[in-house]
Amino acid sequence: MSMKPLEFDRLYGELDQVLRAYEGQPADDGADRPSDALLAYMRHTWHTRPWALSVAELQLRAYARNPPGRLRLRLGEFYPVPDVGLAESEIQDWLFRLADHLKQSVESGNVPPTAEPQTHWEWHARFPELAQLLGGWFSQDMPDEFTDHDAAMRDYSATTDAQLVARVVGELHELLTLGLEEADYALAVAELGMEVDPPAPYSPSGWLAKVADGLGGFRAEYGPPAAGTQ
Question: Domain of 159?
Fold first, then answer.
């Protein structure tokens, strides 16, 4: 029987977040140098959920000390470490290295400075709602579903909760504030799931700014005046 969500989160929830950061990235953490994947996890987590770093360190160390046997894996009672390109005999030492890097970062207060995302995981962790917009409405199927980009945006605005739209606007402004080169903005929207080009004559950043402006206008709903008011 597979683990229930609450039990899974208590034992492996943050460990899972760390290991997801290695998607498409090498697990080349050294004793004195964390990998790009772990740096991405630490950078994002320090600036959004700093308390979770100690939880991750604890869960990594506990898992490394008590790896699951084949029976418990088959029953789904343990977290199966995804393939990170290491031999099975290397996994335990690697997990301890990750825990050591997290512990050192927390105890020293060494907070990675803010920077543009460096990995696929970090792009999605930092801009989750924008990834929903670009990946859901601007995939390669967009030309078959909508007449143009504006039609896709009207559909998004009409079918998405206003609070989520507001979050997208904030994430768009945050992304534009990074001040990237245009080629890097093209890479950013691709990482976030956009599979079609921006409409002519817009550059990627110009189109993102247009979208932010279009979604950012607050539309008040006017009803009849309250009793006793003019």
Answer: 127-216
